[in-house]
Sequence to fold (112 residues):
Amino acid sequence: MSIHSPEISLSPAAAERVGVIAAKQGRAAILRLSVDGGGCSGFQYRFGFADAAEDDDTVAETNGVRLVVDSVSLDLVRGAQVTYVESLGGAAFRVENPVAASGCGCGSSFSI
Fold:
């Protein structure tokens, strides 16, 4: 388990937002990113809060907030950065994924 991982990263804006949400919910500031089959492009990103990192997780930390990714999902998001964007359409966590060959308009699914 690496703390400062070049394999995945969390932007400062995303870390700040995770920290705010975790504090409101009384949870640890640990965001889990996983990849599931499905979505309009073949794979889809899933976000959730975790209580702790698992043994096979890769961990990236930004400003005291952790992003954890399991080993299977990491193969599909290696080198990605999780960001947080606010726009007229709403606010959301986004994955800037260099492994993805294409994605959908909503940004929640991709293909390789």
The chain has two helices and nine strands. Helices lie at 12-25, 71-77. The chain has one domain: 8-111.
